[in-house]
Amino acid sequence: MFITVENLKKSYQAGEGKNEVLKGVCLTLEKGEVGVILGPSGSGKSTLMNIIGGVDHADSGSIRVDGLEITALSDDKLTDYRRNSIGFIFQFYNLVPNLTVAENIEVVSNISKSALNMDTVLKAVGLETKKRSFPRELSGGEQQRVAIARAIVKNPKLLLCDEPTGALDYETSRGVLSLLQKINRDFGSAILMITHNTAIGDMANKVYKLRGGEIVETVRHDETLAAERIEW
Ligand code: ADP
Ligand code: MG
After folding, report:
1. Which residue intervals define the domain ABC transporter in the entry (predicted)?
2. Which pLDDT score is estimated for 222?
3. What's the pLDDT tens digit per position in 38-73?
């Protein structure tokens, strides 16, 4: 198994008490699979992603990614893991406004030491002609493509996408999702995505429903046939 999350627990301090956000989450993903996490707002989806991506710590439980036990890593090793193995994509692109497309990609990714070069990633996301444009000169969909280019430069084993189409209209969303599908196919990165976008149905291998801090249901895509049959 490429990713195994077992009995993951996480609470935040809330006033005098505790807000138990994750109460023993389990999930698995095979190499190259696409997994989707569904759940209402505040159900802990982003917290779960952030812990898997090494930007937040669990209270207990285990996460193995390609044989590496994440929860046991020292801070330095966790930083290495995050930098080398994980690509993050968020709802609001997180581009630096006064840097060009190429600079946005370079600045975060240490491209000279990376697996893929600038031309390869720009071609992969269809932005060869926008290298010197600034974020404000791009549409939302194009800005998200820059963010995707930045995330794939190191050819990460795992792409974590937190509502990547949340700010985009339906047609643009479909384009971004099919781009992610192409990246999954061409580069072999596994994808774990939080989304409510029904256009994801075609590409998801597994759909996990998070409710009240637990995965209440797992749907394998081959059992569902169509996104419409998943109860969002
Ligand atoms: P979702 O992504 O499903 O909307 P989140 O993971 O962002 O949910 O948040 C789940 C719960 O954890 C919410 O109640 C939120 O207020 C709380 N929470 C998230 N991050 C923090 C934090 N850094 N400190 C305290 N509480 C947090
Ligand atoms: Mg969230």
Report:
1. 3-230
2. 55
3. 999 999 999 999 999 999 999 999 999 999 999 999
Per-residue tokens: 4: 């195994």
Measured in Å, how far apart are the chain's first and last C-alpha atoms? 27
Q: Is the pLDDT of residue 139 over 80?
A: yes
Asked: is 3-229 a CATH 3.40.50.300 domain? The reply is: yes
Q: What is the pLDDT of residues 3-48, one digit of tens each?
A: 999 999 999 999 999 999 999 999 999 998 999 999 999 999 999 9
- pLDDT tens for 195-222 read 888 777 778 899 999 999 999 888 876 5
Instruction: Give residue 215 CA to ligand 1 midpoint distance, Å.
Output: 16
Ligand 1 centroid vs 150 CA: distance in angstroms? 26
Farthest CA pair distance, the chain: 54
Of all residues in the chain, the percent with pLDDT exceeding 90 is 74
Q: Are the C-beta atoms of residues 5 and 58 closer than 8 Å to each other?
A: no
User: Nearest bound ligand to CA 22?
Assistant: 1
**121 closest CA partner among 97, 93, 144, 154:** 154
Pocket test for ligand 1, best of 47, 56, 90, 215 (most atoms within 8 A of CB): 47
Task: Give me the residue spans of the domains in the chain.
Answer: 3-229
Ion ligand 2 contact residues with beta carbon within 5 A: 45-46
What pTM, to 2 d.p., does this model score? 0.91
Ligand 1 within 6 A of CB of 45 = yes
46 Cα–ligand 1 center, Å: 7
